[in-house]
């Protein structure tokens, strides 16, 4: 089998020639190499290199990505970044020569859709006017953003009517902002003690989609996609935190629903307060980002009990079991749907358990000689 160190995979090579209905001798003839040499590639005894892949994609209707080794740089099912580690990544961003934000990394993983940051606002505003001269607006970004506010922080954005707006936010308030909406943040606290947890993430529009769009005729694509006018949706959602509202009880938790948007309907954002010690196991088909809001918290992840403090962050891959175990634990959770949506899960069910291992590691020809 292909080594984990190799970028390209013999397993994927077998899948490619099976899909193209090529026997090894047919594939070798296509590539103008000996069958014995091709069989070495196929069995992982000879490394598939860039030269081989370039030759193959020029001959066969396949892509470079079809050859990628799924075991290369394989990651674990969860990842943790402690608040001490997060503080070490601190860097101050300037705007027009003045300190504007302090950024810190929180947990990130190459398999996760999240690119979340802890951001402290270093610009102090005396009024809530969106025309304050100290404000420095960005141009927006491709990633969607869910934001949780701590302290006296103002959120500024441009609304659907192209007007500048200010939302006065406090601890527990949250918002969603769509891609490419210009925005900025500033502190109402003179000591600039407030901060935000900015959970930026990709949803349906990934780099794979960008790469696909580039291949199409731009004019035709624009005509089909943007030919019909849609009712303009609010690209910004603001949710004020109210202790007595916006929550529901789900034993043993109190769950506060934070900002949501119909633009990303399968994404969920919530604060969970644990009311009593418990062993309730949780899991779903989403990527999950957890920001710990309380000290002396305990979570059980894959049967391992771990202690967490305020500011620690956790990434959980889809289908992983975890337990919010200890009373008084408070966490912020963002859930973004993985590729395993209902339609994909249904197709896997039709394939069936019997064929599941073939799906993952089948390195055989599609028929017996």
Helix content: 10-25%
> What radius of gyration results from the CA coordinates?
25 Å
How many distinct domains?
A: 3
Query: Per DSSP, what share of the residues sits in E-state strands of 2 or more residues?
Result: 25-35%
**CATH topology of the largest domain, anyone?**
Jelly Rolls
Give the helix tally: 9
Stretches where pLDDT falls below 50 for ≥5 residues?
none
Mean pLDDT: 94
Please characterize this protein's 3D structure.
This protein has 369 residues and is of the alpha+beta class. The protein folds into three domains: 10-74 and 342-361, 434 Repressor (Amino-terminal Domain), CATH 1.10.260; 78-201, Jelly Rolls, CATH 2.60.120; 242-337, Sandwich (Jelly Rolls). The protein is 20% helix and 30% strand. The strands form four sheets. Strands 1-18-15-20-14-13-12 form a seven-stranded antiparallel beta sheet. Strands 2-3-4-10-5-8-11 form a seven-stranded antiparallel beta sheet. A three-stranded antiparallel beta sheet has the order 7-6-9, with no helix packed on it. A hairpin with a 5-residue loop joins strand 6 and strand 7 (164-169). The mean pLDDT is 94.
């Amino acid at each position: 089998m292909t080594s984990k160190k190799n970028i390209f995979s013999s397993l994927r090579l077998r899948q490619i020639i099976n899909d193209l209905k090529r026997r090894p001798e047919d594939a070798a003839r296509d590539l103008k190499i000996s069958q014995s040499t091709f069989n070495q590639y196929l069995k992982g005894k000879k490394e598939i290199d860039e030269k081989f892949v370039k030759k193959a994609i020029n001959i066969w209707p396949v892509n470079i990505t079809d050859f990628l080794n799924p075991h290369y740089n394989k990651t674990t099912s969860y990842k943790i970044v402690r608040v001490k580690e997060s503080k070490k990544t601190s860097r101050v961003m300037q705007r027009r020569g003045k300190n504007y934000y302090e950024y810190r990394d929180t947990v990130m993983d190459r398999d996760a859709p999240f690119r979340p940051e802890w951001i402290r606002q270093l610009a102090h505003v005396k009024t809530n006017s969106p025309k304050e001269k100290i404000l420095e607006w960005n141009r927006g970004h491709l990633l969607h953003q869910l934001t949780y506010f701590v302290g006296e922080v103002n959120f500024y954005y441009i609304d659907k009517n192209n007007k500048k707006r200010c939302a006065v936010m406090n601890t527990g308030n949250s918002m969603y902002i769509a891609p490419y909406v210009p925005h900025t943040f500033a502190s109402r606290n003179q000591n600039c003690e407030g901060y935000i947890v900015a959970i930026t993430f990709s949803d349906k529009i990934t780099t794979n989609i960008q790469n696909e769009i580039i291949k199409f005729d731009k004019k035709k694509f624009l005509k089909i996609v943007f030919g019909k006018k849609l009712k303009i949706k609010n690209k910004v959602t603001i949710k004020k935190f109210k202790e007595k509202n916006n929550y529901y009880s789900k034993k043993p938790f109190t769950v506060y629903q934070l900002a949501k948007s119909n633009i990303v309907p399968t994404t969920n954002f919530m604060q969970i307060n644990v009311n009593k010690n418990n062993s309730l196991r949780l899991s779903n088909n989403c990527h999950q980002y957890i920001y710990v809001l309380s000290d002396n918290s305990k979570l059980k992840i894959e049967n391992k009990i771990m202690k967490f403090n305020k500011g620690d962050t956790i990434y959980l891959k889809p289908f992983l079991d975890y337990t919010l175990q200890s009373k008084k634990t408070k966490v912020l959770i963002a859930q973004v749907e993985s590729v395993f949506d209902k339609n994909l899960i249904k197709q896997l069910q039709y394939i069936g358990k019997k064929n599941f291992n073939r799906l993952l590691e089948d390195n055989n020809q599609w028929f017996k000689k």
